[in-house]
Model the fold of this input.
Amino acid sequence: MQPKSVIIILLSLISLTFIALLAFHQGVYKKHVVNLNDPALIEIVTDASQGGKTRAEMRIDKQGLHLTCQIKAQYQWPFCEIQIKFSARDANGRFLLDQGIDLSNYTQLYMDLAFQGEQADRVRLYIRNFNPLYSNLEKDENSFKLNEVEFSANEFNGGMLLPIKDFNVPSWWLHPRKLPIKQHGVELTNVPLISFASGSEVEEGEITLSIKQMYFRYNLISQQNILFFIIALWLSAAFITLFMMLKNYRLRLYASNKVQKKQKQILKTLKLEKSEMEQLAHRDPLTGLHNRAGISKYLIEYEDKAQKKGAAFSLIFIDIDFFKTINDQYGHNVGDDILVAFSLCIERNIREQDKLARWGGEEFILLSINTDITEAQYLAEKLRNLIAKQSFIKKIKVTASLGVAQMEIGETTDSFFERADNALYQAKSNGRNQVCVAIKP
Ligand SMILES: Nc1nc2c(ncn2[C@@H]2O[C@H](COP(=O)(O)OP(=O)(O)OP(=O)(O)O)[C@@H](O)[C@H]2O)c(=O)[nH]1
Done:
């Protein structure tokens, strides 16, 4: 992995963790804001509907919704109430009170309230819920479940959260309905309206309730999930980093193996080339025999054996007779072919330790270890005979002259070669197609 990518990944991880920690501390909320600005959604209800004399009016301004009530003790339980509708409306704009909104996920209610009046600031808040199990709007237009809470309004001055679990369903609502126990709890699955009402012990006089702001909210991501996210994030990062490192390592290993393999191949090719070069340098290209450089190692080896161990070491100079005539008569190519056939003829008739080399032109030398002068003379004669009997290409017959010498103890190579060469010269001078033995030094 590149250092630049590592820095980018680390910065992203740190940023994500920072955001997650902020969310952990502040929370990530979904809100449902209650619309307090639309008079069409708001309705006032007082005990006048029950024969009382309480009057109320509302006002909407930038500060919010204000309900002012003139409470009159005419009715046994005087009250005034402001309803805020949530439900859908039909084509004529009438509220469909059986089609409210689902607030069951919301856990808190934020309210910013103010209360004015010469009496206790008690207020009741009802969240009404429609459920066909207990609601029948045709029989009773108030057959909603009442989720109720009563509190001091000024406690919420400046804004405060109220947990939804603080609501309860009053027993006077539950009692006549005889609902099964599991339906006794607070229910916000289908809320068509909420309402603020004067407190249960309201007295005669003027009271004003101002609702400045109001919303329901719940935490979209729990703190537990955020912690899980942070741990999972760093664990995944560690896992991915380990995986990438391993992959990188394997790639590098693969690359180095490949380089090593290639190097081995190059080395092998070089070795092959070297041996080919050596071959070229030590072999005569026409006959494939050792050349002067190629035979030198055997010469050193055999000299050593002769001088230090007393082994018999003989040398035979072989020269084709009148080779110029063949070239002149048949052409250089035929001459070449005869040189090849001539060298093959000798090679096939000597022992492994006898080393044949092309000394130059139509001249050859044969190094023969463990061979004294008598044996060498015999060998030379045998070869001369074979050559003379053999027909080469185009039935051409050639003869050869041979000079033989055995290395003496303490003799130099130059002297040894000179003696053999002189013997060859002697053979040529004597009429060719013969073997001459060198004179002892
Ligand atoms: N075809 C061919 N001819 C070669 C090669 N090397 C040397 N020759 C020829 O061999 C001939 C040697 O001639 P000379 O040195 O006069 O010897 P010669 O004709 O064999 O006579 P003597 O050795 O005296 O019997 C020359 O014509 C060279 O050109 C070769 O590789 N191929």
